[in-house]
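S.,

Sequence below, as promised.
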Amino acid sequence: MADESILTDEIKAMIGTLSEPVIMEVGRVAIRRYADAVGDDNPLFHEVEDAKAAGYEDLICPPGFWGWPIKGRATIGGMSIVGAVLVKAGLFRILDGGVDQEFYIPIRAGDILTAYSKIADIREREGKTGKMVFTTVETTYLNQNGDTVAVNRATIIAR
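The prediction came back faster than expected:
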């Protein structure tokens, strides 16, 4: 029995599952507040004149800030898609395995972003204390022009 997989058919079937889109609005005040909260005093995040002098149309967002949800679930990412299936399979211990981010185009004040999360991969690994399930969730952020501005790849570890 020790060699039996903990990946149920229901878990395997989650690969490729897409979330509902989340629409986010990026505003100047929100950019400034986020930058303040993370302690980033870069003038491109605070002063419109400095952002324009650097060649941007408006303030740009610090990495990792996507604005505020205006349509869709406030939760972006894999737990909103796969969490219930993992728990149903008896995998109650959930750990954040980290996030890789790729940035393509600066996000500016006034942008409207649409985020889609997809279960990109689910795999099983043997650890010192037993088997674990690693779920990779890929979230793609598109601006109002349909340009990809960023992609996040988050890992969720479950036991």
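The longest helix spans residues 28-37.

Coffee later?
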